[in-house]
Please model this.
Amino acid sequence: MKIKIQPVDPAKRRPKPADESKLVFGKTFSDHMFLMDYKAEAGWQDPRVVPYQALEMDPSAMVLHYGQGIFEGLKGYRCRDGRIHLFRPQKNWERLNRSARKLCMPEIDVAFQFEALHELLKIDKDWIPHSIGSSLYIRPTMIASEPHLGVRPAHEYLYYIITGPVAAYYPEGFNPVTIYVSDEFVRTVRGGLGEAKTMANYASSLYAAEVAKKKGFTQVLWLDGVERRFVEEVGTMNIFFRIKDELVTPPLTGSILPGITRDSVIQLAAHWGIQVHERPIEIAEVVDAIRSGDMKEVFGTGTAAVISPVAEMSYKEKSYRVQKGEVGEWSQRFYDEIVGIQYGEKEDPFGWIYEVKF
Amino acid sequence: MKIKIQPVDPAKRRPKPADESKLVFGKTFSDHMFLMDYKAEAGWQDPRVVPYQALEMDPSAMVLHYGQGIFEGLKGYRCRDGRIHLFRPQKNWERLNRSARKLCMPEIDVAFQFEALHELLKIDKDWIPHSIGSSLYIRPTMIASEPHLGVRPAHEYLYYIITGPVAAYYPEGFNPVTIYVSDEFVRTVRGGLGEAKTMANYASSLYAAEVAKKKGFTQVLWLDGVERRFVEEVGTMNIFFRIKDELVTPPLTGSILPGITRDSVIQLAAHWGIQVHERPIEIAEVVDAIRSGDMKEVFGTGTAAVISPVAEMSYKEKSYRVQKGEVGEWSQRFYDEIVGIQYGEKEDPFGWIYEVKF
Model:
């Protein structure tokens, strides 16, 4: 398929951020977007890069009623020498297709996903921020666009990619989070949509996050929906525990998002000779390990923050400080290594970097 | 708030259906729609009735990423004498507000919801079908419209109502459904969003529904997400069992949609002197009762079909006919009574009817 390019009228270019360090996440968007339509009888069609603009959506568009929508999140990094990097984008394209299958949506050829993003980055390359730490956030999205009321998989879809520059997540060093363990609300459950990157999982996180916020915590730690006993995720991140000198993270049993940063941390740890255990971990074990001092570090992993150290945890109205609230050595090491690889400052022994060449 | 009215250009009126009996559900929409915006600092504002048209949505509109959206479904009925009826609309407005609270969205004053629908029905009253059984389907919807990437409750929302004529659900008498009991996939779980009428619950039903369809069944029967032992709902309906001469339906424990037809059946049954039990019911008990012949009837309840008799049920690869697949006496009686009340053909001892007067 040939991608049509319709550049923005130069007079209508969106203002570039005056100060990259002041960018608020998710509020500034680049000049262009990629769009492509799907119809059941014709497949994907009409791929195009157009000026960033409002979508025309029928008020009965199925996504607005039945939540048939999935997305991805990745970043474009500008290295000091001007090269543009993506971090394991193939993983995003593959996960988008896994999410699609779970939601009964059409898949998109991985090579074509690369091509679509390539065309978009090419026309908007000046939007990729220049300072190390800042990046271009990329949001591929697929939604059910068919105008139809009645629950079933749609026959028409829209796939689009929007991008926007974002500031460094930690401009002044780590900002550890405090987490509230929810044993009342659950994000998802085995047999549900937990492992798909789909809107439903985020919708079900809102209420508990507000409860946590009111209690003075920044994130929710989710327990499994069946027994409310095993740790699953934190906020919108995967979670890791350093117990003594081993790394523990919950296994991917269907209700947990298979995070790309999660996978990278596991690979890096193994590479460094750290014992990594993907195994069920009970919240009681977590609390015991904090109490005994065996818990050296707790951190979340995700695309936005990369590593998000946890300083404090509240469970059943009791609060626990993790390692006096200080950022752990491993958190810092994983962060430095991954960010270093992303910006081409460190070697990439895993072949994680995809260099975008225009 | 004053509702502005912008009537459609007469030349642009949408074609009215030539044959009301041929209307497909959810595909035909009336000439106008109601819209209203919400901003965190200003509350609900700018209520208006405008021609039915595409919504302009930013591609970063939060609903398209994080699924913050809720809806309602009700019908407008034209009686033989020309009166226009709604069935328990107050229940819809109240449920919309309960769903809103669960999704951290703003509520809408119940009286104003009435007023908004009233204005819309007034301008589109000719769209309400004339034949008994057909009706005007009404879809109030609230979505997070704020352009923003990042998970949190939005600060801007859009509320809208669209309507469209629909044919009688059973033009030639009941069409019993066959149901597939899913013990692999779950719709939701306690601590999740199950009791809210929100997109997430429908999204999580798609995959299992396709599995059921491939196996030759029309609907999925959902079990609880914790033990996969207790019956919850069927498809997008509540479920009732007539065991001997008692009526059993699962209780509203948080993961089940509090259906308005469900509530009406319970009230009618009590009115008729039938024992109704809102109690947990195991799938094993259901199967045993079918086997022993104690299970006289199984039926779903919902706004679209009112009563949907179940002829067959498949559980763990075994299939069970319910009462030889024949429509039960109670299913017919509940259906006739509720539909009779809706169209003003039967007395309404409960005050369920809201007459729309223009």
Observations:
- The mean pLDDT of chain A is 96.
- Helices of chain A lie at 63-66, 89-102, 110-123, 199-203, 206-214, 260-271, 283-292, 329-342.
- The CA atoms of residues 5 and 273 of chain A lie 48 Å apart.
- Chain A is about 25% helix and 30% strand.
